[in-house]
Design goal:
Length: about 270
Amino acid sequence: MDADVLSVREAAEQLGVSSSRVRQLIIAGSLPARRSSAGWLIRADAVADRSGSARAGRPASPRTAWAILCVLSSALTPDDAKPPDCMVEDRRLRHHVLQLLSAMPDPADDPGRWRMLLASRSRTERMWAHPGLLSKLCSDDRISVGGDRATAHVGEGLSRTGLRDLYVAGSDVKDIVARYRLRPDPDGQVRLHVVPEGVPRELIPGGPGIVLPAAGAADLLDENDPRARRSALLQLSAMCAALASRRPIRAASTSQTSVTRGEGSKADGSGSAR
């Protein structure tokens, strides 16, 4: 096939979408293409332009954002003989994630672009929790802890703060808020991260435990504290460097679960997320 054109399947792989979505774009006139005896032939430069615009101009989808966090965190696995804490088993999604990451600048060079890329991982609500219920909230099986308690502490460490970053699936948030009598408060000690219900269950961080280190770093990147942001940038940069040195990422095996997980206990900031 001519190098200047792509098949529907090849275009779908580059764009990280389904073949049916590519056909929809062709019919809508969004992707220049022509028919041939082999099917649709799509201009390669048009696919590259569309892919580049998507990378630079908007956040990743929630599903893609969690897959990015999974890939970044698994790159830090210190022992090649040990299975990574999480993997993205969907080959098309994994390929899309690696394409996105390869196009991203170093986090320290463009923090805003990284914040945008990962913004859709959750919607956040600042909440106040009664001090007597806070420890029970954090130990609820539906909660996973993020922020400084989930980070890998690459480079310089970061002192823990009173703010708790807690992740919960969208399907559980109403019951969590009611059970622990949480109330909206811009100065509350809980930042509740509600993961959209559209994210596949295998990519939603689950309790009990902590979220992936990359998710914790993303939380710190959203902080107003310069020290927290610096720590986040150091960690994300280290993950990107580790990923670049390990490509291609390891293939999934049937004995490993395709979930977004971190390891350790909530009590000491080292537990595993379900």
